Amino acid sequence: GFLGRRKIPFLIATLCRASSDIVRLYPAFAFANIITFLTKYETGASLDPLRFYLLTALLSYWYTVLTREIAKLIGFRVAEKTAVQSEVEGFKHCIELDLSWHESKNTGNKMKQIYKGSEGIVTVLRMWITNFIEISVNFIGITFILFRLDPHSAIGLIIFMIVYYVLAKYISKPALSWVHKVNLQEEDAFGISFEAVNNIRSVKVLGMKDSIVKRMQEKYNDLYACIHKRILWFRARDTVLVGFGTSVEIIMVAMVCWKILQGDLGVGYLVLFLQYFRKTWENVEELAETTVQFAVARYGVARMKDILNEPIVIDKDADKKDFPSNWKTLHLQDLHFAYGKKEVLHSINLKIQRGEKIGIVGLSGAGKSTLFKLLLKEHENYTGDILFDSLRLRDIKRSSFFKHSSVVLQDTELFSFSLKDNIVLVNPKQEDNQELLESVISTTHISDFVSRLPHGIDTLIGEKGLRLSGGEKQRVGIARALFKQPQILFLDEATSHLDLESEEKIQDSLHQCFEQEITAIVIAHRLSTIKEMDRIIVLDQGKIIEQGSFDELYKKRGSFYGLWERQKL
User: Fold this and answer.
1) CA distance linking residue 233 with residue 241, whole number of Å
2) Domain count along the chain
3) What pLDDT, in 10s, does the model give residues 414-440?
4) Distance between CA atoms of 101 and 476, rounded to whole angstroms?
5) Going by C-beta distance under 8 Å and a sequence separation of 6 or more, which residues neighbour residue 13?
6) Quick one: pLDDT at residue 501?
7) Helices marked H in 42-150
8) Cβ(442)–Cβ(512) under 8 Å?
9) Same domain for 141 and 19?
10) Mean pLDDT over all residues of the chain?
């Protein structure tokens, strides 16, 4: 469960709260006996019973306060720690889920589910300490005491509790259905807000503010309509329940008064019954309300568990092997892959020797990025095999594979950390290796712009690297990849969106890193990037149609020659 090793502290908190609530029943009993004592008191009689009840009532109050606060101190700390840990676990699991799952979900919705689940855990655990223990102790304790004194009022109280709770549950159903609808609308509204802020630069420079705000307003209008209905149903529910409770209280007080007038009960019993009845009413109302809150919290936890229950396939390391660090050949063997029914890779057969520099080119839609995704273990539902010597890529631990490989994506994704942290994040064991850091900074020409940053390499670069230009981001991405000291370097069209000056600097960075003992596989949009590759692979409609060195393919005057000539124009 979510509690894990925190079960024992939570049990201690539960026992403290239970003992506190048991003792808390005593003062009402003591005051009832005091009133009965005073009505029968005769001058000169011993006051010891009065002193006894007053002293024990005082002691019980102090014990109740002390143990209740201890229970809350321990229980609330456990609740908050459990919630924080569950949020971390939810986020960790979310990261490990396969790319196909992420592509089917809205980012804001995912984060909202995890946050709501964490919030729900806090609510449930706090409700246990604050509400459920007290309610349980009072129901059992009060019923027992009243049965000993007057079975009729005890039976009446039990009937009241049952009818009130059933009525509350029944008339709460419409309200709860609107709670569910509000949660769904919140997730949708939060999702749009998150995406808008997450892509704030595009929203600003493309003038999308009005259309985004319009969509957000529509979502929030739908949300408000659901909230309005939820409020209406809860107010109707409260009106019915208060009217029912008040009516039953008057009837039962009249019954107790009749018994007192008949001499069957002492005057003090009326005080005891009123206190216990109102405490019971308060508790049964609290139970009805907390049942609603519990349902809302449980729904939030269930939504988070939906994420936690999603199976991890590709990132799951169980029964898989470590990456073979002494591999010699990467072999793509009769590789086929489809998105749904549309096959995008057909019979790919390719051997890459360790240390070889490979360029992959082709028109848009040729299958270059899809092939990269398979090589990066983002999808495994392909037929055929990807082998490192004789070991299948499917059978290699993802964590082990990425200790030996690195990637520069088409659009480098940066974090709202310092420039340095964005580089060293991929290789925590070497984060203090200043020599390695300076080497990759020099290789990638980051030193050209780091001097103009307010705090140099320790400057926070803003969310998604907003302080940096496109070319600067790409250089950081290459530096990050090299800082990992990989055996295999994947580059996905790293210069496709850059100006000429940025492209030239990045090409120089790439040439420097290609001189190292590294296997490079490069998707290139601008063919000049891969002119010096050992071998160039030409894809068309998911098939390899040509391969060879630049000179070989250029002399052949085939598909690659046509691509090259078009780019020259």
Assistant:
1) 13
2) 2
3) 888 888 998 998 888 888 899 999 988
4) 28
5) 70, 71, 72, 73, 74, 75, 78, 129
6) 67
7) 48-96, 99-103, 107-127, 133-149
8) no
9) yes
10) 84
Q: Can you tell me the distance from the alpha carbon of 89 to that of 95, in angstroms, rounded to the nearest whole number?
A: 10
**What is the mean pLDDT of the segment spanning 144-148?**
89
Answer whether residue 75 is part of any domain. Answer: yes
In the predicted model, what is the mean pLDDT of residues 129-150?
A: 90
Comparing CA positions, the residue from 307, 298, 288 lying closest to residue 119 is 298
**In Å, how far from its chain's centre is CA 428?**
24
CA-nearest of 288, 286, 282, 277 to 143 is 277
d(CA 319, CA 385): 18
For 319, the token pair is: 């029964």
User: How far is 198 from 465, CA to CA, in rounded Å?
Assistant: 12
What single-letter DSSP state applies at residue 138? H
Residue 476's nearest CA partner among 508, 514, 515, 450 is: 450
Longest dimension (CA), the chain: 126
Q: What is the CATH number of the domain that holds 438?
A: 3.40.50.300
pTM, full prediction: 0.60
Would the pLDDT of 528 be above 90?
A: no
Radius of gyration of the chain (CA): 35
The average pLDDT across 125-130 equals 90
Rounded Cα–Cα distance for residues 72 and 69 (Å): 5
pLDDT in tens, 259-303: 888 888 888 888 888 888 888 888 887 887 777 677 778 777 777
Give the DSSP H or E segment for 350.
strand 342-353
Split at pLDDT 50, 70, 90, the class of 499 is: low
Looking at the domain assignment, is residue 203 inside a domain? no
Q: Which amino acid is at 431?
A: E
The CATH code of the domain that includes 105 is: 1.20.1560.10
